[in-house]
């Protein structure tokens, strides 16, 4: 990682680390969202968010679809077999092998740099967006702002909102960006703070764009490396690299599916 990128990352994390606990009151419906935005905007400005980010925040709308999706994540309660069938694990493995062959140069370069083999990356890519076929239509900033306001998990989503506003200030994220229901963006569905922490330029065009598959896959490998991935070690349950997969998603059935499908793609 270049020295200038390290400095930028340290600056980004400083804002997130020093942001105080929010005085803005959370809510469980849309009625208090506009008032919350005004309060949050004052705090965000005091913590270094620029006018571009503030203007974008004030333009957000309460995301009813996001709240519905957040309350309806029932698939994670299925058995492993049920979950894999519901998510089309066998099709992901089959398609993943074809994508591995057709993008061999890209995956070889990623493995050389980050130590992560193609299987887990392809399993994540297939699980998250069907290999880029569906990356979502929900406005990203509205989704993250709604979840930061919502009383269920404001502590988790507030740092992601700060990160989204920083990315907007830098011109790295458009206020009109769309993605998944919880504010994830790109081929492998990164939340904003993870874009700041792990986003890398995999295509060599000088910028990080997770709607570009090379950037998204390299960033995913960088995420796994940042969560302890050891080159050459196994990634099944009980093996050293399984912990890195656990860092990607907290649901046990999801973690196991990534490990199983990844091994099928890698021929292990």
Automatic annotation (TrEMBL):
Pfam families: SLT_2. It comes from the Bacteria. One of its GO terms (molecular function) is peptidoglycan lytic transglycosylase activity. Residues 1-23 form the signal peptide. Residues 33-235 form the Transglycosylase SLT domain. Keywords: Signal. The keyword Signal applies. GO terms for biological process: peptidoglycan catabolic process. This is Membrane-bound lytic murein transglycosylase B.
